[in-house]
Amino acid sequence: MQFLDPKIDIAFKKLFGSENHKQVTISFLNAILEYKGNRKIKNIQFLNTEQLPVSLDKKENILDIHCTDEANRTFIIEMQNAWERAFSKRIVYYGAKAYTNQLSTAKPYYELEPVTVVAITKKFNVFPDTPHYKCIYALCDTKQCEHTLTDLTFAFVELPKFTKQEHELVTDEDKWLFLLKEISIYDHIPEPLQRAEFKEACQLLNRLSWTDYEQAVYEKKMLDAQSAEGTSIALIERGKEQEKIETVGRMLKMGLDTDMIASATGLTTEEIKAYTNTLDKL
Fold this sequence. Notes:
By secondary structure, the chain is of the alpha/beta class.
């Protein structure tokens, strides 16, 4: 078996946006959102079904997964491959827009239904200072931390922080995240993923189950993702460099000399001089 990488958008959409394989998406959402008992999703309806671009030559985006459940709750699932400066803001915008788009001129406010956005990052961390790989944000009272406004929820999953190995997988959440992150390096279905919904997911990612055209689109999307990742790394490095320049500039304005700046920042004397020259040219 050869499994395609579910982090590539077309594979991600085929995995979690398939009308004939809803149980895969339901299981994933229940695991990530920790839904139990009466809160568990039992059925979903997809609100968008586009999976392939019309032409390989066109730069068409495959839409995020957008669905509702039997309780009329809306769920948006997105996989983000490349670093984006305002990614968390865009996710909040997605949720707010999906919430307000429910309201027509004739529809009263009390008919608005909850919206949850699940955002997964492939190779970068949205919250680098937070050690856990998953954060769920909800509207809570700041004094009592009571979650009384339940209409907007944002779940961020940072795959780089998920480091569990096959023998460490216990929960369904563990297994789904491991599948997302590691299945493409396997040539068989790992033992912890032998349950029906995981086996179904693996079969959806089996290259042999894809048409030649689907595989061609996948290869193109994979190259696009690699290019975007390279660009994002360059942007991150450029941002770090600019931050160092600005730090040196602030310290110079404070009257600190080169030795003091070096001691405080760990930069070498040569680096400080180079940043100082850059500041002089600005």
